[in-house]
């Protein structure tokens, strides 16, 4: 019969805590490789590979924000009917430039 050593417990806890973080990292890596934002004259288009998966017309936007500007990790924007949160998996300075150019804050 195998007796669990007391030193095995911290390893199991560390593995249990690290697993969700590692899965989130893999998910964000996949998103960074496959998702592309395109700022057009009238809308923010989101592509997965070459397929358009969503279009957000600027005329429906009410507000946008990049959270934690010292370490930008989250992009928020609200439309008339819904709000959206996107992890920043792209250049935050370029994102801000495109947002200010296409959809200036009021």
- State the distance separating the first and last CA atoms: 69 Å
Kindly report the spatial arrangement of strands forming the biggest sheet. Answer: 1-2-3
- Please identify the structural class as seen in this structure: alpha+beta
User: Could you list the spans in which at least 5 consecutive residues all have pLDDT below 50?
Assistant: none
Q: Helical region count?
A: 2
Question: What is the helical fraction, as a range of percent?
Answer: 25-40%
Rounded mean pLDDT is: 84
Rough shape?
elongated
- Cα-atom Rg, whole angstroms? 20 Å
Largest sheet: 3 strands, antiparallel
User: Could you state the order of secondary-structure elements as H and E?
Assistant: HEEEEEEH
* Approximate strand percentage: 25-35%
Number of strands: 6
